Amino acid sequence: MRGMAKDVVRLDGNTLVMPGEVRVRFVRTLRLPEQGTHPLPPGLGDFPVRMVSDYADTVPEEWRKRGGVLLPMYLREAMWLSFSAAETAALQVGVGKVCAVSGRPWTDKLSQDPQNYVVLPDQPWLDGINSGEGTIRQFVAVPLGLGATVEGQVTGAEVWGGIQLQNFAAKHPVPARATSYSGYDAGYGGMQGGYGGPPAPAPGSANAMGLGVGGTMRQEIYKDSRALSEWKAKPAGRVFVHLVTPPDWRRITGEEPPASPVSRASYTQAGLPWYDYYDADGTDLQPAQPLQDVVPVGDWLGQDHDPWHPVAHDQTVVLNDPRGRPVQDGDW
To answer: CB-based burial of residue 254 (10 Å sphere; 0-12 exposed, 13-18 middle, 19+ buried)?
Structure first.
């Protein structure tokens, strides 16, 4: 937008654009089983995102004070965050003001002991909280008040909910090289109806949602190879992302929420791809100690009845694979 300050967070369609052209998308996906370790699930299209300030008359008062944006999630729906950046940047990701990388309380300072941020564009996405050893535990939506969120389990209280984002610029930024992850975050059209969750609240209130954890998948959170002194001390921008139930979304915005996601069984049985990501230069972070005792939402909400069909080997697509296929030489 012409004349807009460079330190303002913008909403471009459904994409958050933070200072320094750091872009964050919120992507719908398949919820993983809570047992075993799985490949990366596909993207099923972006969540719709709206600005809180556009709905000042229908959001709760505390949301108006926090500002930011809102998006709808179904009970136990999974999400991943897609990142891109025009140049080197550090991004902090909070779930209920608990750092998803370190498990420590939210802060406006970067740390490397333990690391409390991801480095862009090295980290193309984040599907859940850091569990170390090349894995994460998937972000899954749950209502506040049950104690099932990461926030509730780590801090003993559920006050904030939602997602918090804050980015820092490098003192000597390096332009990002263009990267394509064909297919992984492309939208998928097969959706089906149905919703289970809390009843719609009275006008002016809302059933606040937070993020708990689901299944484990193979995904690394990369260790920063730079010195902490190479980053600017103050954040360039920040934003609070409120999560709302579909009935609240309809009441607050007047829009219909997206249909509930396609089941993972239907997706896998159709032979559609899952993904793996390869980065020979990346070093994975150690497990975050405060996050080790977080239990999956199934322990709070009951057994997951969505059937699981194992993914065939030829359904897993390797992304960013520098090895490629060998080219056969001949006589010449």
So the answer is: exposed
